[in-house]
Structure formats: structure tokens, C-alpha cells
Amino acid sequence: MEEEPYFYHPLENIEDVELFEEAVERTHFTRSLSSERPYTYWTLELYDQDNGIRGGGGLGVLAADTRRIAEQVGIPFALITPFYPSETHQIMKNGQVHDEHIDVNYHDYGFRFIDNIHIKCCDNLCKLDVIEKRFKNTRIICITEPNFGELYSGMSGSDHRLYQEVSLGFGGYIALKLLGLKPAIMQLNEVATFFAALARLDELVSNGMDFYEAVVYTRKHTLYTNHTLVQAAEAEFNIEQFRRFVYPNLKSPAVRKWLDDKFMNGQLKLSSVTIEIAELRSGVSKLHARVANYHDIAGNKVKFKAITNGIDLEKWTLPEILSFYHEASIIDTFGFPDVDFTSHLGAITADKIRVFKAAGRKILNDTLSTRPDQNGKILHFGDNDFIFDFKRRFVDYKRPELPFKNPTKLREILEPRGAHYVIAGRVHTGDEIMAGKLRILLETVKQDDYLCDHVHYIADYDEKLAYGLSCGSNVAVNVPIVGLEACGTSWMKDIINLNLLISTHDGGVADASAENYLNVHGMTEDEELEELYRRMEEAISVWNNDFDLEFLLQKQLAAYLPVISGSRMLKDYLDFLFPL
Question: Residue 158 has what DSSP assignment?
């Protein structure tokens, strides 16, 4: 039987012990973890460009933030993910987005080769490289091979996707053993990581543990974090696929029989078995945890613990703003809102806001210096230019095209202020619906002389562009269809960098009252559109009035700083996983 994790105290990893002891007392960070028994975090996607891994969106960015936060607060942490040897970039050609595929090599980013391991697929031994990059108390462990493909290669229920998921789960678990690590907890991010917990269950039973005891043990040490709202969107695999890719890696007949019983009409939805193997389940915002529509094998609706996503404030905050927050006792050393932070928000004056925005504008201009818009124009914004932005995944429910439903009205809002509207967001490869909507949007812009010169689509959205726009814009537009956004984190980067937020009341934004930002609401999309236009006009007015600007930005921070703190997020996970 696998031994229980022993008591761990993280002070050895913190230089300023006295300050950290205060944080421990306030946040209960002491946990049952050690360097040999770390918190393990499993994800099919990591978005960490500094370490050479480019993800597809918010889930990957969140994974990178979580590891960095664990390092900052001294939590032993291992992130297990694939390293994809090819990544997709997007360029504009003749007004349309095209994909470019670029090969990447893990040697170029400081990863070291550990060893080769093997899994079994389709009657063959598949050789996988185990690579690793270590930091102070955290590490990134990757599984890779030359033909691994790109992130989300193939359809969600395809053989190649299943091969990638099995490689991560079974291969990643073997890699942990190779490195002498035993997971104190396994956090499964989305159902694609289910096979890691299955590998652990199989090992326990194969080593002699009673099957039902092994199930209980695995369930108690596994957290399933769901990042999507509708179970129908999950992939299904058939039993023949499992016989070719999954069953050859199982040693225990009992585990195989357990899996057999989960198939219905020869099909298996991974969410169903992930729910079965993880006793601990979390959603990524308060709203998400309430409305996520997932059911177990018996058809009962599953309850999720609400642990709202957060961001690494050190990574995403303009340095000048972050220093100010520390000096004004708004954010403490470990990324938490100061105990009495709301009483210090009055230090955020209009003069300081404009100084910070000028500094952020320089970062934005530097970012845009090599990124032309859809017209091939290199943008350079002055300190007095006014910028709205939409920077998030280009998917249907986020409605990037909404402000362009009435281009005449949009022009009437932007032109008197000479304002610009910057759009940045990746169209997923193969998403013809959104590619078509982008073409229509750009054609609409092209037909109007003012919009053509003041609405800019920037291709190949990535971390650097997200950061530049968060620092350098004035107003962020976030208008998902209410009920479809699980959390979102782009808006969090806007809040921390003193941008006005225009948003529908969805995802993590709904963690606080709609009175705390420029809320867009309505019974129909037409009503929402009219409200969006009204809020855009209001945002311009707010930026022209120092009192209103100070009041609203202070109000946003008062409501949302506790929500967006990544340190708060990690504390919430630890409190949930290791209750005192």
C-alpha cells in the first residue's frame, strides 16, 4: 500500500521567514507535501512561452500561472504536460488568417533529457522521451516524441488525440516514478488527463492493494477541475479505441473490468469516468460551480466546489503598477490583497493612472512594432490615443463580432474621441464558422473609411500581445453569452492594470456584483448591443473625468482584487485538498 504523505512545512524555501510566517498564519499554507511527494498538476495544455511551450488559450496560461505561484510561495509542485514538437502561428494574407506550423526543440529552452520510456498502443511499443526543467521547488515534466503532433491535433474523439492523452497519463505516471516522485495529490485539469489517475489505480491494484481500497485511495487523492460548462462538448471514445490504446497499458484485470462496465452502447464519455475516479471536484468560478451540467454514471448531477481561477500578479501586472501596489499596502509580498487593502485604494489617483497608462503604452507599442494589423500597418499609439480592446479566444460564445452589428453606431462612438478598437484573438484551426465571422467583420470594417483606419485586427494572439494590451489599453470589452463562460482570465489582467472593464455578468466576473464594473445586460442580443454601445460611450466619458476615473477603477479593484489573486486561488485549492 502506498504510504500517506507526511507533514511538510514550506519555510525552508522562503528567504524572508518572518514575513512568510505571517502569511502562513493568515492563509494556512502549511500542508502535507514534500519535495518527494509534491502537488502534481496534470494538463494537456501549458502556455509558457518563456519555457518554449505555446498553448492554445486560457487553460494553458492558467497552468503556467499556477506553477509560478506555487514557486513563489514555496509549495512542492510538479506540472506534467506534453511537449509538442510543432506549434501553430497565424498570419494575415490578403485579409484572411492562415496557419503556419513551426518546429520547436526542447533543448533550446533548458529542458534536460531524463530517459526513454514506453507505452503500448495498437500492438506496438511507443517510445516516449521524458524531459524536465527544474526550478526552486517546482518542476515541469514533459512527455514527448517527434511524431507527437501539435496541441489538440485531430478531432476530439480521434485516435491521435487518444494517443496523446494516454501518453500523458500512463507515460507521465511512469515519468514520476522514474524521477522518484509520488504524488500527494493529482489535480486533473479537464477530462483529457483522466488516464493519469487510471494509471495510479492500476499500479495500486497490481501491487496487491484490494481493488475497492485502491479505488477509495485514488478517489481521495484526486481532484478533477472542470473548465467547461456543458458535458455534451466532451469527447467520446469507443471500446475498440480503448482496446487498442488503453487496455494494453493496464496490468490489472480488475481495473479493465471496471472500465468495461462504464461503456454504454460501446461508447465512453471521459467526463463520466473522471467523475468516478475523483472524489474532489472543482469548478473555476462561483457561477460555473453552480451551473456546470455534469452527471455521473447513475445520471445524478455532480456537485463542484467553486475555486475561481486567479492570475500570477507578478507576471501580468505592469512593474510600475505592481511596485505601487506594494508600496501602498494594496498587495502583500506573496500576492495576496493586503488585510486592509480597501482603505489604501484612495492612493490611486487620476494623475498616477495616466502615468501608469503612458508606461503601459510604451510596452504595447513595442509589442506591436513587429505585428501589422489586417491592412499591413504597423501601429504606434500616442499617450493621448484612446483604445478599446477585445483580446480573448476567437470563439462563438465570446461574440467578438458583437460591436460590429451596427457599424454606423460604432463609428459614432469612436470618431468624436478619435478612438481605436483593437481585436486580438486566435481562430482555432479548423473552426470555419469563426473564420467566416472574422472575414465578415473585417469586410464590414473595410467598407467604412474611419473604421478601416481605427479598427485593427492583430493576428497570432499570444502571451506577449495579451500583456501589452492589458498594460496599454484604456477599456477592455468582454461580452460572452451569459451562461457559457466558465471563468475567463483576460479580464483579470485588465482589472489589475487599471483598465475599465465592460462585460456581461458571466464567468469569474459574476463572482462580485455587476455594480462594480460597466455591466452589459439585456433580455435579447439587440438589447445587449444597445447597452454595450452605451457603456462604450460611458467609458470614454469616465476617462475624461478624473473623479469618475478614480472612483470606478478603485471600485473595480475593491471588488475583484481578492478574486483575481492567484495566491488566493492556490490557497483555496490547498484548503480544499488538505483541510485543517
Answer: S
Count CB atoms within 10 A of the CB of residue 450: 15
Cell numbers for 326, please give them.
506594494
Is there a contact between 198 and 166 (Cβ–Cβ < 8 Å)?
A: no
Determine the pLDDT at residue 30.
43
Distances (CA, A) of 519 to 357, 402, 522, 531, 555: 23, 15, 10, 8, 13
C-alpha cell of residue 576 = 480544499
Q: What are phi and psi of 278, to 5 degrees?
A: -120, 115
Which phi and psi (to 5°) does residue 454 adopt? Answer: -125, 0
Report DSSP state, residue 511: G
Residues 6 or more apart whose CB falls under 8 angstroms from that of 369 comprise 378, 380
Give the integer Cα–Cα distance in Å for 511 and 11: 32
Q: Can you list the alpha helix ranges (DSSP code H) found in 370-511?
A: 407-414, 432-446, 449-454, 463-472, 490-496
Total number of residues shown for the chain = 580
Residue indicated by cell numbers 507599442: 365
- Three cell numbers at 136? 526552486
37: cell is 511527494
Measured in whole angstroms, how far is the alpha carbon of residue 263 from the centre of its chain? 31
Query: Which parts of the chain register pLDDT below 70?
Result: 1-31, 230-234
**Going by DSSP bridges, is the β-strand pair 86-93/96-103 parallel, antiparallel, or unpaired?**
antiparallel
Residue 78 β-bridge partners: 40, 139
Q: Would you state the cell numbers that stand for residue 73, as one nine-digit string?
A: 510561495
DSSP of 234-249: S-EEEHHHHHHHTGGG
- 28, 31, 313 from 21: Cα distances, Å: 10, 14, 21
Walk me through the domains of the chain, giving residue ranges and CATH numbers.
34-84+110-310+570-577 (3.40.50.2000), 314-564 (3.40.50.2000)
Q: How many CB atoms lie within 10 A of CB 408?
A: 8
Cβ pair 309, 69 in contact under 8 A: no
Model-level pTM? 0.93
The CB density around residue 91, as the number of other CB atoms within 10 Å, is 12
- For every residue of 326-342, DSSP letters joined together read HHTTSB-TTSPBPTTGG
Local structure of 264: helix, strand or coil: strand
Quickly list H helices, 263-312: 270-277, 286-291
Check the CA dihedral 200-203-205-209 and report its sign: negative
Q: Is 32 helix (H, G, I), strand (E, B) or coil?
A: coil
